[in-house]
Amino acid sequence: MSSTGSTPDVANISSPSPPATNNISAPPIFAFARLLEPQYLLIVFSALGIIWLGAHGALRRPPSAASPKLKKGEKKREEEKFTEGLVASDAIRFPIMLAAVLVGLYYLIQWLQDPAILNKVLRGYMSIMSIAGLGTLAGDVVDNLTSLIFPTMWADGNGQVYRIDPQRRCQYVVSKETGEETIIEGKDTPLPGWLSNLASSTSSKWFLWELRHLLTEEWTVRAVVYGKPLVKFELRANDLLRFTIAGAVAVAYHLTGWNALSNLLSLAMCYASFMMFSPTSFNIGTMVLASLFVYDVVMVFYTPYMITVAKNIDAPIKLVFTSAKGASMLGLGDIVVPGMLMALALRFDLFQYYQRQTKLEPIQLTTETASDVASSETTATTTTTTTTTTQHRRIKAPYVDTRGQWGNRFWTTPLGHLSPVREATDAIAATAFPKPYFYASVVGYAAGMFVTLTVMLVFNHGQPALLYLVPGVTGALWLTGLRRGELKDMWGYTEDGSLDVEDVVVEVDGEGRVVKESGGKKKEEEKKGEGEKKEGSEKSKDEVQGAGEVEDEGAPRLRDGHHELFLFSVTAPRAAATIS
């Protein structure tokens, strides 16, 4: 975060003017005309594009949805969590940390007098650090491309949805009336739509099914040394490809220093930041943005630190676009900081989508009350009163994972439409749910960016982009909540786990609206209990294993007391039977 925060804001570093006219304002009409120049359009669309991708990549199961249903033979996946959830104290901590880094870089440049030395060090460091970010971006891009070629469903011109079954290696349709499955004769390839006609021979179909299996299924890698498991993890072919791409780009940038590769690494680090950080709630996110808003204004308008560091450091900590008419740059902090709140807005949209699908199931609650009743002067009897009340229990809709759904959305969306056909419920739930808050934040960010560029061109001076982006994004979000009457819902939404509860019993009024909640079991508590049970079972297993009666999956032990001295294996789930 410190490297992104210490980056420059939008600044026009092209066409330097003589000192006497350096701060002369330009007529607004010329400023508006210059906004159409390529370097400024690239700045805006690059920032919006990576925020759009990062916000969708950072989607998680919302607390209003239940864990996804597992298909036959599918393993339960561990839910992804953000590395760091921001808290209220970060509104004070971040500006102080970022200011310290920025001032340190400024005086280091002054002391070295030659920024080339610092640039070499930073370029090498950032080349290594960017591999993880670029690997994340490249991996998600490869996964989406794979889903485009091998989706799990597609729709024809009549809106009929065909589903692809990799286990039976066929395509089938589901009847709307009876729900029965009907296998389609002649459609036995993993390709959708007109692509299915490309494979006609048995060998070509077999190759495509095997390729789909290779790209989509997880492989298990294990290494054992002297009977003890050293490593064990799941791996896919796409994982190997993502790190190959990331490593190659990082090496190429380190050797060449090309500006295009620097921009690519910068965008990848922004994308990875959305995967790792979350503002936790709208009020915390707004507080952090407000504090960095003040930091940005002070550092650009009242100190020489920001612009000096921006112009002298050549490393992937900013976006730089050049053209025949000049150049412009944008610090990564101006993408990541408002982008985190925009990503939270998209997850709030998903939360509301599943919240609207929550059903209330009536249940009977029986309460027994014991009371003593005197039957005579010396004896007493106890009577029990049974009271039965009708309450309701919340039943959450199961979550649909977004991974692999973008290809489904593409192949189930009719030409000229924006949303999939109604029968493609998975694609709709994962990608086509309503996004009012996210779209509002995108409009606010775009408006703030164009205002920044306009003011910069009019006054011919670098501008603190957060001065315009923070009001644009936060204003758009809170005004949307006000207009929709959901300010209370926005204020109460949090990703700290407190909303992720199950078995909630609620009271409803005559119109079916929830008026009171009671009870509920948190997901975290449930997982903790499962973890303790698992730990106990593993301990028992190890005790039995010490007697030489069983074999550990991670570290095979022979029954005659010998150990595997060294073992390295890569295993894959068995593919379906070949096509006859």
From TrEMBL:
Transmembrane segments: 40-59, 91-109, 121-139, 240-261, 282-307, 327-346, 437-459, 465-482
Signal sequence region: none
Topology with respect to the bilayer: Multi-pass membrane protein
Cell compartments where the protein resides: Endoplasmic reticulum membrane
Record field: compositional bias (Basic and acidic residues): 516-544
Keywords: Endoplasmic reticulum, Hydrolase, Membrane, Transmembrane, Transmembrane helix
GO MF annotation terms: aspartic endopeptidase activity, intramembrane cleaving
A GO CC annotation given for this chain: cytoplasmic side of endoplasmic reticulum membrane
Pfam families: Peptidase_A22B (PF04258)
GO terms (BP aspect): membrane protein proteolysis; signal peptide processing
Region (Disordered): 516-558
Protein's UniProt keywords contain Membrane: yes
InterPro entries, per database record: Peptidase_A22B_SPP, Preselin/SPP
UniProt record similarity statement: Belongs to the peptidase A22B family.
The protein's name in its UniProt record: Signal peptide peptidase-domain-containing protein
